[in-house]
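pls design
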């Protein structure tokens, strides 16, 4: 039975959109090579005189006439202007549309494309107010590892040494608190594994956000023009973060054609073309991307994984991670694991196999046979060796994107001093550091220590890991399940999420028809894919008030896939979004 729009809101049903996409010239070159019989594109900040990329969803519109200093332009640099061109076009579209407001713009677009969690204010605001205005009376650790006493605090609120320069890689107390926190959420120390190994606090660098520490880490591991291999689809802003200043080339790792049909019979039969395994990187896909980079004249230096994955909303199985670790070590390629959603895994075990859903790259790399014989860690740390690295932040799991708290971890001793010095450009304010140290070290509410608890150790319960995160998981899971129920009701294919703040949806049935003479599937031209998906994206946004992240902006191999951030709305807005999705599906199928 067709769905009925229950609210007064109705889509602006105007089939006036062109079936071709208006494109703009991009300053960043898109070079096309063949990878597994399909085009292989590499993003770079260098400009080729013989080729210009099209904007589509991938790069911001920018006039090519302003990409150089011809004519005596001294007001700005080409490199500054080129950085703007790396931003996805869909961001401009999203800024231009009228946003939803229950009174002033009830027909406005609902913002479901920004990966923020707006369901936690009731928990976070009072907690942060407490952590930032008063300290518990347990010992604080200063940068010289001396105990702090009450008379060192100004009005019980501000520590006297906070007004001076800080250690560039973070206050010792915060780094220790972060190390203890990561040990817990990454399950690096359990009753059966790694009981004698812990994170080396000297390998922790605290910086102003995940993108800042990631850029610095990659800066220390590469030379300009080196390649970063990224499994698709991937977080669109990686292209800005790693190209704008570091000058790296991003080479997509396409995975779909490197998985044989019939080898995953149960999942393939149930999910068809939308089975999760099609997105898993494997040795064949990594080799193809590696060769593609070399063919382009770019040395592959980094394999960057998003785990749990953004935008897919799933974790890679341990077998996939282990294959990537082994491949990287064999190729002497640095594996960087972005685990910014590690604390947002709301499905802890696989519903059928019972296997643990998320296992950190750090845990798997430390327990692999290669690391046990590694001589680089000198008895400290996890024994990762020099080729495995990690980045994280509190922007997602704690919804603290405004505080800018990121962390990088590496046991490669050659990059420690460079990382610390580069972090001078993106330090966290001293007050934020002390607040976060308190937040991560604070005991679980209601727990009495009797004067004997050592805060932050594994024998005590903490507010962060034993109170806040479990409640956060509960709320995320409920939202995810509600959206999954509606998508199933609407017969919309999607990946069954287990982590993150979003679901990956397949809306390809609503794409405009293929142009005459155009091939289908992976054989379709990149220009046709971009144009058709853009029509659908604009229809969703302008006619149905649904602002999703388009898959082609994340280099998805096929058009018509979208990321829906189900945490980026209030309860009322989320309910309205579900209603609008039903209206879109009903209208789209009636008007086929």
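designed seq:
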């Amino acid at each position: 039975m067709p769905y009925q729009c229950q609210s007064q809101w109705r889509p602006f049903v105007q089939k006036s959109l062109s079936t071709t996409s208006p494109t703009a010239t991009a300053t960043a070159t898109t070079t096309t090579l063949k990878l597994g019989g399909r085009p292989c594109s590499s993003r770079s900040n260098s400009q080729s005189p013989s080729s210009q990329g099209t904007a589509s969803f991938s790069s911001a519109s920018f006039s090519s006439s302003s990409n150089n200093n011809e004519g005596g332009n001294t007001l700005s640099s080409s490199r500054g202007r080129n950085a703007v061109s790396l931003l996805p076009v869909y961001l401009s579209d999203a800024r231009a549309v009228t946003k939803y407001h229950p009174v002033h713009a009830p027909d406005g677009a609902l913002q479901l494309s920004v990966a923020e969690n707006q369901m936690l204010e009731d928990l976070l605001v009072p907690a942060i107010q407490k952590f930032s205005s008063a300290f518990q009376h347990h010992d604080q650790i200063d940068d010289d590892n001396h105990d702090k006493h009450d008379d060192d605090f100004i009005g019980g609120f501000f520590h006297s040494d906070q007004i001076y320069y800080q250690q560039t890689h973070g206050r010792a107390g915060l780094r220790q608190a972060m190390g203890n926190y990561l040990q817990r959420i990454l399950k690096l120390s359990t009753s059966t594994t790694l009981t004698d190994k812990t994170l080396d606090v000297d390998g922790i660098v605290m910086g102003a956000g995940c993108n800042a520490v990631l850029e610095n880490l990659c800066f220390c591991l590469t030379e300009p023009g080196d390649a970063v291999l990224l499994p698709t689809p991937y977080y669109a802003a990686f292209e800005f973060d790693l190209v704008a200043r570091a000058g790296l080339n991003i080479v997509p790792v396409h995975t779909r054609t490197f998985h044989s049909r019939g080898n995953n019979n149960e999942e393939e039969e149930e999910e068809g073309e939308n089975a999760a395994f099609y997105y898993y990187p494997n040795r064949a896909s990594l080799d193809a991307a590696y060769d593609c980079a070399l063919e382009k004249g770019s040395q592959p230096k980094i394999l960057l994984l998003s785990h749990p994955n953004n935008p897919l909303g799933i974790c890679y199985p341990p077998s996939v991670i282990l294959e990537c670790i082994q491949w990287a070590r064999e190729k002497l390629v640095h594996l960087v694991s972005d685990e910014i959603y590690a604390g947002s895994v709301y499905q802890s075990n696989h519903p059928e196999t019972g296997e643990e859903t998320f296992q950190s790259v750090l845990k798997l790399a430390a327990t692999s046979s290669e690391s046990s014989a590694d001589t680089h860690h000198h008895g400290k740390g996890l024994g990762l060796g020099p080729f495995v690295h990690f980045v994280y932040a509190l922007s997602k799991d704690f919804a603290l994107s405004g505080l800018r708290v990121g962390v990088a971890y590496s046991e490669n001793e050659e990059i420690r001093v460079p990382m610390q010095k580069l972090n001078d450009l993106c330090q966290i304010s001293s007050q934020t550091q002390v607040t976060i140290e308190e937040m991560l070290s604070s005991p679980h509410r209601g727990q009495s220590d009797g004067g004997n608890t050592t805060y932050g150790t594994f024998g005590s319960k903490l507010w962060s890991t034993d109170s806040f995160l479990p409640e956060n998981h509960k709320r995320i899971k409920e939202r995810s399940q509600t959206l999954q129920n509606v998508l199933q009701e609407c017969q919309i294919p999607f990946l069954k999420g287990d982590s993150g703040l979003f679901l990956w949806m397949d809306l390809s049935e609503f794409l405009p028809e293929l142009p005459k003479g155009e091939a289908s599937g992976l054989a379709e031209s990149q220009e046709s894919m971009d144009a058709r998906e853009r029509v659908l994206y604009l229809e969703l946004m302008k006619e149905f008030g649904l602002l999703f992240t388009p898959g082609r902006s994340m280099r998805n191999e096929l058009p018509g896939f979208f990321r829906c951030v189900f945490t980026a709305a209030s309860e009322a807005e989320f309910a309205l979004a579900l209603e609008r999705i039903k209206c879109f599906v009903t209208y789209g199928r009636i008007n086929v």
